[in-house]
Amino acid sequence: MRVAMIGSGYVGLVSGACFADFGHDVVCVDKDPGKIERLRANVMPIFEPGLDDIVASNVKAGRLTFTTDLAEGIAGAEAIFIAVGTPSRRGDGHADLSYVYAAAREIAANLKGFAVIVTKSTVPVGTGDEVERFIRETNPDADFAVASNPEFLREGAAIADFKRPDRIIIGVEDQRARHVLVEVYRPLYLNQAPIMVTSRRTAELTKYAANAFLATKISFINEMADLCEKVGANVQDVARGIGLDNRIGGKFLNAGPGYGGSCFPKDTLALIKTAQDHDAPVRIVETVAQVNEQRKRAMGRKVIAAMGGEARGKRVGILGLTFKPNTDDMRDSPAIAIIQTLQDAGATVVAFDPEGIEQAKLVLSDIEYAKGAYEAIEGADAMVLVTEWDAFRGLDLGRVKSLLKAPVVVDLRNVYRPEEMARHGLEYSGIGR
Q: How far apart are CA 301 and CA 8, in angstroms?
């Protein structure tokens, strides 16, 4: 099948490359000429393990192309996916749908023959209705259907998630749309991926509900970690004890500095705003978002407490800047609030991240960047592990002790064992233990 992907960011590029790997003829469209030129040269705009290899092989096979010309990109396409950004709108927190609607209007102006326009961007309930209205207003004679097909990709594991999904949600109001999308995903039948067909609005809400629920698990276990510290319990054992219950499950129960990234912060906020607009407030989700925001700066204060309650004039080595490993994504990373809290208290920060430094430079100021983990902590009054990159899991603790000015280690991901740290003479502070 011929597939067009409008937007060549994280979702659009990964989805487009994987569709091409299934054998479809895919065109990825983006308004940024520089990005398109770099993609043609196999230079990825994001860090995602394995993505460059899939893009290169499918470009070579002629199944994947890139263009800035939307009319050229959608010509003959049976499925046109809208995969543009929906960031939080400044001022009110609603999802900014301007890019989605602009794409819909441009698609409508260039639509010839039947096509299914699919919103793959994360959008509030009712967006598909608006997309359909915009297309009909722009091109009353157009033959089309609008569907919702939310993505459930984890950064750092997106290719595996796309090719071996837990489920595929298709929201349609038209049987022709259902047929086209089932055919688009037919190559996954061998993996027995469950395809769930719902109404369009149900599909739109399912995405938000899924992210809000996962965010709730994270905030819940983080609050349990705080309680564990007060009462002398171990949050990792608590998490395992409840996670072994099939009704709860063990995923997203790792206590830490709070969630970040491109999805959870903006999606929980958008769900809150949508619920308020429809007079059906989601109080639990509201609390989850509040707990998460408060936690990030609280982790900065935890570091200050580990240094004896005083940060002014001290040097702090930060290991990990991105919101999670295996990505260069700095959006709403806990590291941002932690570093700003330390700076506000008068500390000097030096940081290292295997992939995130260039993106960090866009959102953080007045910090030093090291070329490696050991360089970041040399002469520091504390080492703080913020992101659990594999490169930080097996540090030479004897060397760590010798490099630090003061033997203080704050492990915000519980990568190390307290007894191991104690053997090396390190003053260790973890989460909920």
A: 39
